[in-house]
Amino acid sequence: MEIPSRVATLASHLGVAGLIAVGLGPLAIQAGATSPFLGFRIFLVGGLCGLIALVLGSIGLWRTRAASGREGRGRAMRGALLGVAILGLVAGAAGSARGLPRINDITTNPGDPPVFVHAGQLPGNEGRDLAYPGESFAAQQRAGYPDLATIRIEVALPDAFQRSLTAAEALGWEVTYSDPPGGILEATQTSRIFRFVDDISVRLRADGAATLIDLRSKSRVGQGDLGANAKRIRAFRDRITAP
Q1: What is the pTM of this model?
Q2: Domains and CATH numbers, the chain
Q3: Alpha carbons 215 and 114: distance in angstroms, whole number
Q4: More confident residue, 36 or 157
Q5: How far apart are CA 105 and CA 217, in angstroms?
Q6: How would you classify the pairing of strands 174-179 and 184-190?
Q7: Which of 2, 84, 116, 227 suits a disulfide with 130, CB 3.0-4.6 Å?
Q8: Residue 162: what pLDDT?
Q9: What is the pLDDT of residue 1?
């Protein structure tokens, strides 16, 4: 009589649990049953279960080899394969974040970043410090995103403001504050899967007949942003400078 492998069984159970967790987290967020932060934590727990399932599944495959006298090879294989699938989902959600700085407040002008005028009054921002973190972030940004800089367009300020507003709306931003004479535009953008909200400030200044545009994009949660804020700034830059 073959002895069942407990490791193989545990790997299978963890693989199933992990798969449920990585699906449940985003679904609960979309349904409004939990906050984005908690839903993301559930997703990460699923990823951890997947990692352990892969390790235990690999051990289980060894322990259930033909000469071992143990049964449960199918469960070990299930755990290992589910672990691989789960880690693939987590890696896909993370995107190409390797090597990026762990900062979540990005701007085109680290030396003189735009300030948030109205964002502190939005739900979810009450009591939050929206000041730019300073040189510690600026130094990391210059190293991690050297392409980000003040945008200059050969358009007068009123027209540049309208173009900025059009670009923001086209990119799916929700405009929350607009001050054309002051050259200030603020908005938010919500991520599709985890529903994280990021705050955006656009500052426009006349430079003769041209306009200088600086942006700042700040995540509300987390230490890093997986490059999302820099990607958002680049998308705005590419759209507003397109012919």
Answers
A1: 0.84
A2: 3-94 (no CATH), 105-240 (3.30.530.50)
A3: 7
A4: 157
A5: 6
A6: antiparallel
A7: 116
A8: 96
A9: 41
Half-sphere exposure of 130 (CA within 13 A, CB side): 23
What band does 104 get if pLDDT is binned at 50, 70 and 90? very high
Pair of tokens at residue 133: 């973190």
pLDDT of 125: 93
Residue with tokens 């730019």: 132
pLDDT at 219 over 50: yes
Q: By three-state DSSP, how is residue 141 classified?
A: helix
DSSP string for residues in 80-121: HHHHHHHHHHHHHHH-S-TT--S--EEES-TTSPPPPSSGGG
DSSP category for residue 134: -
Q: What is the mean pLDDT of residues 154-161?
A: 96
**One-letter amino acid identity for 26?**
P
User: Would you say the C-alpha torsion 93, 145, 112, 152 has a positive or negative sign?
Assistant: negative
Range with the poorest average pLDDT among 32-41, 66-75, 120-129: 66-75
How far is the C-alpha of 133 from the C-alpha of 204, rounded, in Å? 22
